[in-house]
Structure formats: structure tokens, C-alpha cells
Design goal:
Blueprint (H helix, E strand, L loop, with lengths): L1 E7 L3 E7 L5 E9 L2 H12 L5 E6 L6 H9 L3 E5 L1 H10 L8 H14 L10 H34 L3 H4 L5 H9 L3 H12 L7 H12 L9 H15 L2
Parallel strand pairs: 1-4, 4-5
Antiparallel strand pairs: 1-2, 2-3
Length: 238
């Protein structure tokens, strides 16, 4: 069994490999952060004719493509928090003269000497779930921001709406999409309003009465409404 350490950077990575005695069996190699570089790494490791365990620091998106490649090639991969590697390197006095090649050697040593390495085994599914969770969180934050703006605008241009059907519903959004200001809704009249899905006759009549006294007939709410609907639609598929 060989223990491989990879030091991750933005454009290139450094790798070294140790045997069970801690002896270097792969001369320090630098490869590019692209497909050609990954294939060079794979070829170099396969030429050693031994099974390999591979470790690297959990540095975020710089290693994303490499991790996918290593999993596709069937390698067992481990990812360590950079702080753990830093503390381990200090214990070995490896960082007095810092180089990427020494970093790769330190990562390989950490993997070799770690009796608890299995808890650091990398799982692509967990990473994908983490990415999706972060994306959903960002969407919800943006949706919340646009809802605040939408509500503020609605309170100005049509404060009566909330008492009739509320501010957030499918038919409220459809109503405001078709008729983005009170003047257009007033011109549409009862017959057009009643065509809106789930909007009852009594609510349509209440709209018509309220529209006649609405203070701002010309202001539209289109932009904040569109954003609110877009984010609601995105989250419904998350």
C-alpha cells in the first residue's frame, strides 16, 4: 500500500507518495489543475504498481474537479482540514522552510500515520449535498430580500390588497403579473379579474371597489414581483 499526499493550489498541484516505511517512492511531481494534469497524475501512480490511498487538504473548489477525477478512477481519497495538517506539520518541524513539495510530503505522512483516517474518507455525495444546501440557503435569502421589497412596494401602491386576499398567493402573483398597477386592474374590470384562477367573485368585486380609491394608480410593482416569483419557483424544485 502507498500513501499519496497532494498539495492543492489554484493552477497546479504537487504530489508525493510514501510506502509503509515512510520512504518516498514517487519523486515530487507538479501537475496542472486540468484534465491533462490529472491524467499525468493517474499514469504516475499506476506505474508504481501498488494500491494507493490519496490525501489532500479540504481547500474548497480548487480541488473539486480533481476529487471527481480520482473517484472516477477508483481511488480511495481522504480530505483533511488544513488546520489538522498545519498542526501535524508543526509537530514534525516540516514548516520551518515551507514549500509545496514539503506540504505534499507532510500530507502523505499524516495519512500514513493516522489510525483514524477512515473518518476523513471523502464522499462525493456529501459534498454535492453540501453544495445544494448552500445554494438553497442563498436562494431563500434572496427570496426573503425580494419579498421585503415586494411587500414594501405593495403597501405603497395597493395597501387594500392584503385585506382582500393577502400578499403572497398564486392568484395574487398572477393578478399583479397581468395587471401590475391599480390603473390597469381598474381598467380590466370585474369580467377580466374573475378569469384569474381561484379569484372568487366576491374578491373580484372587493378589488373593484378598492381600486377606485387606491392612492397610486400608475406605479408598477413588476420587478420585485418577478424576482419574488422566480425565487419561489426555483425553491419549489429544490
Amino acid at each position: 500500500m502507498l500513501y499519496v499526499g497532494i498539495d492543492i493550489a489554484k493552477n497546479k498541484h504537487d504530489v508525493t507518495a510514501l510506502n509503509v516505511q515512510g520512504k518516498t517512492v514517487l519523486k515530487p511531481l507538479t501537475f496542472s489543475n486540468n484534465k491533462a494534469g490529472f491524467e499525468l497524475l493517474d499514469l504516475s501512480l499506476r506505474q508504481l504498481n501498488q494500491d494507493c490511498l490519496i490525501a489532500l487538504e479540504d481547500t474548497g473548489h480548487y480541488a473539486f474537479n480533481l476529487l471527481n477525477f480520482l473517484h472516477e478512477q477508483g481511488y480511495k481519497v481522504y480530505t483533511y482540514n488544513p488546520l489538522l495538517i498545519k498542526e501535524f506539520a508543526k509537530s514534525l518541524s516540516l514548516r520551518k522552510t515551507k514549500t509545496d513539495k514539503k506540504d505534499a510530503h507532510g500530507i502523505a505522512l499524516k495519512l500514513l500515520s493516522d489510525p483514524n483516517r477512515e473518518q476523513f474518507q471523502h464522499d462525493n455525495r456529501q459534498v454535492e449535498l453540501k453544495i445544494l444546501a448552500r445554494h438553497i440557503h442563498r436562494l431563500k435569502k434572496k427570496q426573503s430580500d425580494w419579498k421585503v421589497q415586494y411587500t414594501r412596494c405593495l403597501d405603497i401602491i395597493f395597501p387594500e390588497l392584503d385585506k382582500i386576499v393577502g400578499k403572497h398567493s398564486e392568484y395574487t402573483y398572477q393578478l399583479l403579473t397581468c395587471y401590475p398597477n391599480p390603473q390597469k386592474r381598474l381598467e380590466a374590470g370585474f369580467d377580466k379579474l374573475i378569469e384569474i384562477k381561484r379569484l372568487t367573485a366576491s374578491n373580484s368585486r372587493a378589488f373593484c371597489r378598492a381600486l377606485k380609491s387606491s392612492p397610486n394608480h400608475q406605479i408598477e410593482i413588476r420587478n420585485s414581483l418577478d424576482k419574488t416569483i422566480d425565487f419561489s419557483y426555483s425553491l419549489s424544485f429544490s
